[in-house]
Amino acid sequence: QVQLVESGGGMVQAGGSLRLSCTASGGTFTNYAMGWFRQAPGKEREFVAAISWRSLNIYYADSVKGRFTISRDNAKNTVYLQMSSLKPEDTAVYYCAAAFGRNSFNLQSNGKYDYWGQGTQVTVSS
After folding, report:
1. 72 in Cβ contact with 98 (< 8 Å)
2. How far is residue 49's CA from residue 32's CA, in Å, rounded to a whole number?
3. How far apart are the first and last CA of the chain?
4. CB–CB of 110/97 below 8 Å?
5. What is the model's pLDDT at position 102?
6. In this predicted model, what pLDDT tens digit does every residue of 28-39 receive, in sequence order?
7. Whole-angstrom Cα distance, residue 87 to residue 29?
8. What is the mean pLDDT of residues 88-110?
9. Of 17, 6, 7, 10, which is closest to residue 87 (Cα–Cα)?
């Protein structure tokens, strides 16, 4: 059983930056692709970014491309989401997720993921 714990959320003004972290325990981190999703009030959970186990394949939602950067440090069992040029529409609960396997197919789909964190709130004020 893999446990995922997110941190780094908070409140920031539009145009600002935040870095989210997600640390995994209870499994072999390099056996998992990692993803970030978000859910705003009244909306469905949506894909934000994903990264394969060796960081060779990286994917972004169009809405965050050029502003967000996903990365991972396998030695620290941690995946990061660096968020810049934040907009009020980025306000959401952000979830970290782990998908077992070393392939990179369909990482944009939340059904691909086996484990989820509890989420961290990001609020961007205008």
Report:
1. no
2. 14
3. 40
4. yes
5. 81
6. 999 999 999 999
7. 31
8. 93
9. 17
Which structure tokens are listed for 84?
Answer: 């810049």
pLDDT attached to residue 34: 97
Confidence tier at 87 by pLDDT (50, 70, 90): very high
Kindly list the strands in the beta sheet with 18-25, ordered across the sheet, starting from the edge strand earlier in the chain. 3-7, 18-25, 78-83, 68-73
Structure tokens at 46: 């949506």
| pLDDT value of residue 105 | 82
Residue with tokens 């660096």: 82
CA 43, 9, 50 angle in degrees (round to 5)?
65
| Degrees, nearest 5: CA angle 113-116-119 | 135
What mean pLDDT is predicted for residues 53-69?
96
**Rg of the Cα atoms in the chain:** 13
Tokens encoding 92: 């959401």
- 4: tokens are 């995922």
The torsion angles phi and psi of 95, rounded to 5 degrees, stand at: -115, 140
